[in-house]
Structures are given as C-alpha cells and as structure tokens.
Amino acid sequence: MKGFDFEEERIKQEITKLGAKRVLLQLPEGLKPEGPRLAKIVEKNGALPIISADPCYGACDVAVNEAESLGVDLIVHFGHSKLIKHEQTPTIYIEARATVTVDEAVEQSLPFLSKYAKIGLATSVQHLHALNQAREILIRAGKTVIIGDTGQMSYPGQVSGCNYSNVKSIADEVEAFLFVGGGRFHALGIALSTSKPTFIADPYDNRAFSINDEAQKILKQRWTCIEEAQHAKTFGVLIGLKPGQKRFDEALKIKELAEKNGKVAYLLAVREIIPEALLEFPSIDVYVNTACPRISLDAPEKFLKPVLTINEFMVISGGSSWENMLKKGLFEN
C-alpha cells in the first residue's frame, strides 16, 4: 500500500531483539490489506505471524487478551501512537506515517478560512510530521496559528478518536480549526468537542471542505436521544471490555445514580457494542455507554434504542445541563 511508512526494518529489529517466535499483527480497517505482506516479512525473519482479523478502533483497542491466549511474544500495532500502559505482551506501535504531501490541500483550505484570523491546527498521528509545513502555509496567508499541547497525547497538535484535549486547550484562543488529514472522523470530533467552525484539508483528495453542517446534524440527533431517554424506566449500563475502554467504576456510579432517580439499571459487559448485541435485551429502554463515546455519537440511527454517553446521561439525571455538557465537550467524562 503506497502512501504509508510501515517501518519494516524496525519490525525486523524488534523481532530479533526480543527473540520473538510468535508475532501478532494488528491493523485498523484501512491498513488491513497490508497484513499478508507484513506477515511475509515477519515469517522471513524467523517468527510465526498471526494477523488479527478483528476490528481495531484505535490505540485503546490493543489486542492484549488475544495475544495472551495465542501465546504471542510480540504485538505489532499499526496506525496509532501509544495510549495505554499494560504489562502483558511486549507491544510496539508503528504509527504508519503518511508519505503524501499536504501543501495543496492546505492551500485549498484558505478560502474557507478567509474570515478567521486565528486558526487552531490539528491532525492525526499519520500527518504530524507535516504539521509545521501546514502551519507555514497558514502564516504566509496572514493567519495566526496555534497548536495545542496539553501533554495528554503523544505529540502537540495530535487528536485521536476520543481524545481532543489538545484542541480543547486552545479553543478559547482560536476562531476556527483546520484538521489536516483524510476522512471526516477526527474533524467531527474537533467540531463536537470545541463547538468551533472546523474545516478539513484532505491530502489524499487534495481538497478542503467544511464539517460544520454534519456536526450540527449530530448535535440534533443527540438532543433527540436525550429527549427520548427522559421517559425511560430501565437502563442498561455498558461496560467496555477492551483494555483502553474499560471504566468499571464509572459504570457503577451511573447504575447507582439511575437507581437513586427511581430507575432500574443493569450492568452489561460487552466487547463489541453493535446493534445486534443490544437487540437481545428488549426490556431495556435506554443504554448508557461507558466505553468509546464515538459509538454513541457517530451512528445513532443504527441502534433501535438510545445509546447515551456518560455526559448525556448526566443531563437526563439532573447532574448537568445540555449547555454545560456542550461547554465541557461530548468526549469529556
């Protein structure tokens, strides 16, 4: 697959250094086609490669349990930077930095940013090395550019699917955000976390566009879910079983608060929060998701029952207001 650096030599070196005999390769959906090629490299280096065919949603989803059950000596996790600490199988993170240039896409964004003077700049791990080039283009266009660095992420300006601490730290200092990278996923997260106009400079299609109408649509969907949940009597509190998504204490607090408000609440442990899994519990009116908040936010129409984030549950339980939740951010718990 052209356009990404898979650091093949580093993989070989780590296998040799650890004397690994069995290696688990874990790739997100867009990079999975590279699995067989990378497996051949591992095999030629004297180790048995196993490709994880399960979905991989981020650095919170490292396949540590799978590795342990398979007797793996090394996990090679692609497409993300390190997020969680674990003392199980040794793991290396191959960030798969993009080799495409961002200049033309950032130039395309300038008309969208014409009425804004102060721009917040952000990207995913794939394009972090191009952030300074994007910054220079914006500065030459007369913009003041601010890149957040709160220390919660591995790099300044980096956002992940559920962590927008870098952009939230500068939201009061900027008028709009520019996300450099492909797709809508991360840019939507920026817009929903900061309530600021957000635009995308996509270096794969060499174009720029706004994400703001889509963000407003999601906010309306979320309000509809909250209104529906106001009348619910029975709640299912979802406990994520993935290493970086398990928040058991939060789930217990939500169950306790729901019961204080006269509701019935059940704890449900689940690895994959998919509509089919929730259909098995027809007596439950509403679910509260304590795992990845993007599951609740990005595709509510897939679920027949409302699936709330923790903060949305706080709105219906009286612990917060819709306005305060938006100020805090949909991803902050």
Key terms for this structure?
Rossmann fold; 5-stranded mixed sheet; 34% helix; 3 domains; 13 strands; 333 residues; alpha/beta
Give a structural overview.
The protein is α/β, with parallel strands linked by helices and 333 residues long. It has 13 helices and 13 strands. The protein folds into three domains: 87 residues, Rossmann fold, CATH 3.40.50.11840; 108 residues, Rossmann fold (3-Layer(aba) Sandwich), CATH 3.40.50; 113 residues, Rossmann fold (3-Layer(aba) Sandwich), CATH 3.40.50.11860. Strands 6-5-7-8-9 form a five-stranded mixed β-sheet, with helices on both faces. Helix 5 links the parallel strand 5 and strand 6. Helix 8 crosses helix 12. The longest helix is centred in the middle third of the chain and has 18 residues. The two termini are 37 Å apart.
What's the structural blueprint in terms of helices and strands?
Elements: H1 8-18, E1 22-26, H2 35-44, E2 48-51, H3 64-70, E3 74-78, E4 91-94, H4 103-109, E5 118-123, H5 131-140, E6 144-146, H6 165-168, E7 176-180, H7 185-194, E8 198-202, E9 207-210, H8 212-229, E10 234-240, H9 248-260, E11 264-270, H10 275-278, E12 286-289, H11 294-298, E13 307-308, H12 310-316, H13 322-328
Parallel strand pairs: 1-2, 1-3, 3-4, 5-6, 5-7, 7-8, 10-11, 10-12, 12-13
Antiparallel strand pairs: 8-9
